[in-house]
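Write out the bound-state structure for D-ribose.
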Amino acid sequence: MVVLDPRNARYGGHTVSTRRVVIASDHAGFELKQALVAQLRELGCDPVDLGTDGSQSVDYPDFADKLAAAMAQGQADTGVLVCGTGIGISIGANRHSHIRAGLAHDVTSARLMREHNDANVLALGARLIGLATACDCLKVFLETSFEGGRHQRRVDKLSPPPATPRPA
Ligand code: RB5
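---
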């Protein structure tokens, strides 16, 4: 369900307007991240910018790890990650068991990753997506609730499986 007024939307027991969102990017995602930080403020959220802080080359896994650590510490229950494609940084984030990062290039993906997958991190590819679409994806991601029901059972199955036995 998409709630049109973000200030009235509820998510994880908080209204969007009181919601803290952690956000990070590598150098390729830096400019888009800055725009998304501004958008988060406009939406009334409380963005926590974990870097990177400029266009100097950095390694996207470091920023995925930084965001995962901040969420593990309880700084926020929602995150946004940006790299050139969104692929590397979402792979990095999804190594952490408390993260479900979904990559969106369109608003439908941003909505469905919340409704069906209970994604807690939105990943975007700055070199592949336009600014307006990225902003729309973020807004819809924040405004959409998890549907639960049959999707809860499936999301439960995304938790880490028991260690696979090694062949003798
Ligand atoms: C950096 O050049 C680029 O590889 C990175 O931003 C990302 O696209 C990786 O998946």
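---
The chain has a mean pLDDT of 91.
Residues 2 and 144 are 5 Å apart (CA to CA).
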